[in-house]
Design a protein that fits this description.
There is one protein chain. The chain starts with a helix and ends in a 15-residue tail after the last strand. The protein contains three helices and three strands, in the order H-H-H-E-E-E.
Length: 100
């Protein structure tokens, strides 16, 4: 089981799992519903329709002296946001990957 997960997530499992989780959370529901669930105000266009996430793409920082990963979000109002998963420390002990 570990080998399958290790193949899927590579040498940087923490970063890739967090990146995949953020991407999933932000694309699993409508943005207005996610805002409702978090008790936040909704973003709306001038006509009152909710702003939506039109695209969420994972990215890896240039691979130059960093392990950072992130997600680019494109919204229906034309705005683009980059969310970065910044790595400041790696685990000291061995970590095992498993599926539930």
């Amino acid at each position: 089981m570990f080998d399958t997960c290790a193949d899927e997530f590579g040498d940087y499992a923490h970063e890739e799992i967090l990146q995949a989780l953020v991407t999933h959370l932000l694309t699993s529901g409508d943005l207005d519903q996610l805002c409702d669930d978090a008790d936040l105000p909704q973003l709306t266009h001038a006509d009152g329709t909710p702003v939506t996430i039109t695209s969420a793409r994972a990215y890896r920082d240039a691979g130059v002296l960093t392990l950072d990963r992130g997600v680019w979000l494109e919204l229906s109002d034309g705005s683009v946001f980059g969310l970065t998963v910044t790595i400041t420390r790696r685990p000291h002990d061995e970590v095992t990957l498993r599926r539930r």
